[in-house]
Amino acid sequence: MRGLARRDTGPELALRRVLHRQGLRYFVHRRPLPELRREADVVFPKAKVAVFVDGCFWHGCAEHGQRVHRTNGWYWPDKIERNMARDRNTDARLSAAGWVSVRIWEHEDPNRAASRVGDAVSKDRRISKEVDG
Length: 133
What we know:
This protein has four helices and four strands. The protein has helices spanning 10-21, 56-59, 76-96, 110-132; strands spanning 27-30, 40-44, 49-54, 100-105. The protein has a four-stranded mixed sheet with strand order 1-2-3-4. A hairpin with a 4-residue loop joins strand 2 (40-44) and strand 3. Helix 1 packs across helix 4. It is globular, with a radius of gyration of 16 Å. The termini are far apart.
């Protein structure tokens, strides 16, 4: 597992390219909240939007993550369930702090995923303009 990429994966880079092309600027691999010991893959601090690009295997994708594990079959189901519980906990803690958490599966089309992210970021912009204006 140490040899696996934890950052700058193919799906992550594809999403970031589309976001950048759309004119969105962001931070990469940053903690949305200092007390939260988890990094989001893409962070928009002003809009309070944290984006996570989740791998199908590691985060239990219903479409692609359900496969038989030939090696250490006893270990993986519990590990993946713990990952999913941590994801739910992260989303709840971010929501309680006023953040929006966007979860993207690695198999998602980068253009569609970027559209979802853009909607979350621009929704915050519309709200702040209404309050300011």
